[in-house]
Amino acid sequence: MLNRLTISLILFVALLVFLPLRSEATQQTSYMLSEQPVIRVGIWSNQSNVLISADTDFSLVNARTKEILGKFVGKEKVSITSKDGQIFINGKSISAGPAIRIEPALTDGDHYIEVNRKRYRGTMTIQRTNNKPGLTVVNTLPLEQYLYGIVPDEMPSEWPLEAIKAQAVAARTFALYNLHKHEDDGYDVCATVSCQVYGGKSSETTQATKAVDATYGQVILYDGKPIQASYHSGGGGFTENSENVWLTAVPYLRGVVDYDQKSPGFKWEKQVTPAELAAALNRSGYNIGEIKAIELPALRTPTMNDPDRGISGRVKKLTILGSTGSSSITGNDFRSILGLKSTLFDIQVILPIDKSVDVKITDSAGDREMKKIEINLPPRQEKGLLLDKQGVHRLSGRSGEMIIITGSGGGHGLGLSQWGAKAMAESASQTDSTYFKEILKHYYQSTIVKKVY
Fold this sequence. Notes:
The chain has nine helices and 28 strands. The protein is of the alpha+beta class. Helix 4 (161-177) packs antiparallel against helix 8 and helix 4 (161-177) packs across helix 9. The protein is globular. The chain starts with a helix and ends with a strand.
């Protein structure tokens, strides 16, 4: 009886332990769509004039009443203008209602609509910009065709195919996660770096299209949902935890080793004078007078555990002391103020050494004179006071003093590193057509890649 009870207890405990894991696994594979989504892309916003055309005959139609506003032959240029609350087609005022739809006579194959001399697949709507006087152009098309115009603008097409496939899956996931982001503006996503850079059919390349087709419908999931698939140029050797950039902890956006050492932006440097830094801070609302000191803990090899730096060493906060006050500035704000490539940086204060010295010499006749001798010593790094705590960089105010900012990587440092993906793909077996999943699982921790339509 005792043995039976013991066995029952063990089975019960085992059920409690393994049931959540099984439920999580089931949840992670539950996301499915019945068909490929359609996406609305705001390609132009608040334009006073839009120049349109198509490679086939086309009509302009009142999107609400279906009234035909004009018919045009293929490749004819048509100007649509917004002025004083009125909309004009080729200079003629029309009653367009809330939107004008461009309807090509042929929509099959590779036909395109041209807007401001760039070509796009799908359909096009021109509508009044929300709360602004201009026009907004919205391109509506299947998600996979949208990716044709995204991937080549986000990653060079001559890079390894597995890296481009990883980019394609990340871009597809990013788009699904951000559907309806711009709903108040009348579309889903924008076409700039605020969303993803979209160049339409004009940007398409054979290699990028191949990568999109090879990963058709595949998405990165965590806890059964598409993830916030952020990506950036290069992590500078280590990516970052999301809470150190956005203040929100995202379980799959964790700092990991990056392989972007061959990135042209892996190491960078910016020099500013104390006066230039003071002026830049002043323009951004930090009125602290003449710069006296900068407090920032030294950058060390990851992983770091310092309240002012993230796990990779990215700056979360630094303090600047001035003649009239001091300010605590986030790493993101400091990066924006000085136009730095990333927040993964260190600071030094340097005082240049004179390039020559005057010395007294005495010749064989006993005559004395001054002689200038050229020297070539490196700049001298300023040191803090003995009682200063670590990470305090004092400025002396002497002529020629410079603030040297040395950094690594480019972008926010979250999620997929594009240069790291390239390096991983180059080192992988060239016959492994699924290696893009390994790249994605490295940069998006504890996720799965799944075909969802």
